[in-house]
Amino acid sequence: MREPETTRLSPEQFSRKDSRLQHVLSVLRRNLVVAVSALVLLLAVGFALFPSVFASGDPLQGVPADKLQPPSLAHWFGTDNLGRDVYTRVVHGAGLSLTATLVAVGIALVVGSLVGLISGALGGAVDAVLMRIVDVLLSIPALLLSLALVTALGFGTMNVAIAVGVSLVANFARVMRSEVLRVRKALYVEAAFACGVRRHTVLRRHVLRNSYAPVTALAAVEFGMAVLAVSSLSFLGFGAVPPTPEWGSLISEGRNFLAAAWWMTTLPGLVIVAVVLSAHRIGHTIENRSAR
Length: 292
Description:
The chain has 292 residues and is mainly alpha-helical. The protein is built from 12 helices and no strands. α10 (212-235) runs antiparallel to α12.
């Protein structure tokens, strides 16, 4: 009887199959990270929109007998020095923190895009003046600029949002200007000018419409940085007035109890870290796809 024939693979075929397997695993790993990141962001948005669904308790009401209780089934994130449930305060604090972040990114997106569009479209002296202002803003660390602005504006969550938004304007202006300079040289834009179409119409219909994709991707990336900046200013005491919960202020409240109640700072801090990293992952994914 003949022995059954066995299929033997050459070394090149082995290496080809191995590379394909690695590619498939890499794609699955990236998609899994993106899926988890999207889930974290959706959960954070759910906290902000429907806090009572995720935590039905009162974030301002504490039980003195339960103060400084460690994490348990009854109190997932433990309790603070006044007996208030830390998880409930984190959930209810998401509304203020994420609202301030959205306002900050919205200000930076609108103002920065307008500055970049005008600078790139007009050129000449206008471009030189606007870009020197942008250079000055870029030379100052964003957190330091935000701190200076919020000191001038005063305390409050919306003032924090405005300060953070202004500190991010320069990044959006630079990206928009570079895109406008690229699109302005396109043949269809020159053809529109040659046909006598007005400048503002060309800018709105052709230049802006073909320049906003990278700026939108940048907004997704900067969302995570805005969360961190808003939380930092809140940690320093420039945000909402206590006892109103806010992510940064929750960490600030627990820093005096690190030895006895580590969960008061660690667990809200991990929530901020998870949201920031997830926003960065989603933002870079959008940026990579828009660049193709």
